[in-house]
Amino acid sequence: MRTVFDSQLALLEAQMLVMASSMEEAVVGAVEVLESRDKERARAIMEGDDDIDHQEREIEALCLKLLLTQQPVAGDLRRVSAALKMVGDMERIADQAADIAEIVLTLEGEAFDSKLNKHLAKMGRQAAGMVHDAAEAFVKRDGERASQVVGEDASVNEMFERVKRDIIKGIQAESDPAANLVEALMVAKYLERVGDHAQNIAEWVEYSITGRYKGELLG
Amino acid sequence: MRTVFDSQLALLEAQMLVMASSMEEAVVGAVEVLESRDKERARAIMEGDDDIDHQEREIEALCLKLLLTQQPVAGDLRRVSAALKMVGDMERIADQAADIAEIVLTLEGEAFDSKLNKHLAKMGRQAAGMVHDAAEAFVKRDGERASQVVGEDASVNEMFERVKRDIIKGIQAESDPAANLVEALMVAKYLERVGDHAQNIAEWVEYSITGRYKGELLG
């Protein structure tokens, strides 16, 4: 028979899976509404964020309960403490998605200048891909995949710099209304942060598998 | 005689204090160099960030060691798990300060338009004040002060909206070079995030004192 601890740990993993899918869905949705400008869907992404915040609190409560009542050791302790850290990044990723959706609601007129639009969309897909892979690495306890995610953040950062240059050019050429260009820069920044948080998640996955966090042995 | 656990907990608190002062110093410095445009000092703030990252990892390692070997309960467990969560926000605050310092290095010419400059400086002081108060609330286990910090975030968010409006106007009036205005917006966003992270820290301080996180009983 399963012990109480085993079933609580299984519950934790199941809750993490639900939260990971919610977060991934929010990011993919935010990237899509950025192009489609579908305001109804943008509103739904924003409203979904409360639910993700609630999931975070439930997971935190369960992690603390597990630490408090079950006093796990070794690999189990790493898994619980990594989960406690990771949910913070997962919630932050969902926040950025909601922030992007909120921006879509404020944009006036049609899509951005085609080059800016293309670069933003590419950046969005890359960031969403990192989120997906980090979540999958956690689920499958796949350290190799986690390391790949860590390596991808630099390319999202480069894309941010490129989009920033597009925006400065757009301001000078008045290719889009100034207010829209300012919001496009915010979107790019949020996507860059999504990449950062996906990297953080991947680093905690590595820790939960190997005991090494950013290459250093912890605990 | 003190137990091993007590001395390790005292060490954790001392390390948290060092990290809190480093973080606060970085934010205050970033706000100052934004006005003074002192590039040498900006470089020093950027370089100090590696040290803060290292402090974070040391604290995380100590928290995990405490959880693993000492299996603290009740209030002690809350203090250790809150520390484990808070250092993430502290590190992120220092990152934003380093990002602002890095921007100062790239700015061309003199200070921003005086209104924008004034609003940014005010926003910076408010965000730095929240960081100071959140750190002090942790040190003094002062739940009331922590609650005050939580309440202040809305005003930093409002200031961000005001600065954003200044910047859109500045773009239209060409009051500053477009590249500088884009960077000013990034600075404002980073300061707004500093406020968010200070609020997160204050929420973990409340939890470590009361067992309630964002008003909900955890664990």
Automatic annotation (TrEMBL), chains A, B:
Q: Where is this protein found?
A: Cytoplasm
Q: Which residues form the PhoU domain?
A: 19-104, 120-205
Biological process terms from the Gene Ontology for this record are: intracellular phosphate ion homeostasis; negative regulation of phosphate metabolic process; phosphate ion transport
* Signal peptide stretch: none
Which Gene Ontology cellular component annotation is one that this UniProt entry carries?
A: cytoplasm
Predominant cellular place of this UniProt entry's protein:
cytoplasm
Q: Which domain of life is it from?
A: Bacteria
Fetch the InterPro entries from UniProt.
PhoU (IPR028366), PhoU-like_sf (IPR038078), PhoU_dom (IPR026022)
Q: Which Gene3D superfamilies match?
A: Phosphate transport system protein phou homolog 2, domain 2 (1.20.58.220)
> What is the purpose of this protein?
Plays a role in the regulation of phosphate uptake.
Assembly and interactions? Homodimer.
Please give the family membership noted in the entry.
Belongs to the PhoU family.
Name-wise, this protein is: Phosphate-specific transport system accessory protein PhoU
Q: Organism, per UniProt?
A: Slackia equolifaciens
